[in-house]
Amino acid sequence: MKIFIGCSACDEIPSEYFDETKRFLEKLMSGHDLVFGTCKSGLMGIAHDITKELGGKVIGVCPDAYKDDFKTLKCDVEITTKTVSERTDSVIRESDALVFIAGGIGTLYELLTAIECKRCHEFDKPIVIYNGTGYFDKLLDFFEQLYTQRFVREKDKKAYLISDSVEEIKDYIENYNTNNQNGNIIPTSAQKLGVVTFIKKDTHEF
Question: Are the C-beta atoms of 48 and 70 separated by less than 8 Å?
Fold first, then answer.
């Protein structure tokens, strides 16, 4: 399974996030391949290194402006895009599951884009918010405000899993086809409208 890890590329964040990310990914990435935003620093670097140590493959997806970052990495597949939005499209297309851990503006952009695209039936893959450090607490409080004030429908909570348990997350993503009532079937209405952008075709299989 190819798992996208959305996370920080900054080295200056508190050390607790590095420690927790290492513990989390050593368990999560065993037996899986990595899709990520192509950076050697921060939590992205940890994701790259741990996946390699565990024998997994790495798919790096990077905007043209940062393609030199490939030189510091050992990606099995290198994908460049013209824009950041195209990179987000690519990581969704290349991944079987999307897991978000502590990160900045880019991570939040990818998370909200993934939720909105899934909500609009453009793809059906597991999305996970890992909150082991409580990093997302305030964001999740804001999400709850959106639901309680009815800016977002309550049923849209089903688009993603919030968890601080690696075992729960592994079970969710590895058994998603059976746990999810829709499996990976795109609604017929979406197919007719031509909005099915991220079907598993033209992806890199190992």
Answer: no
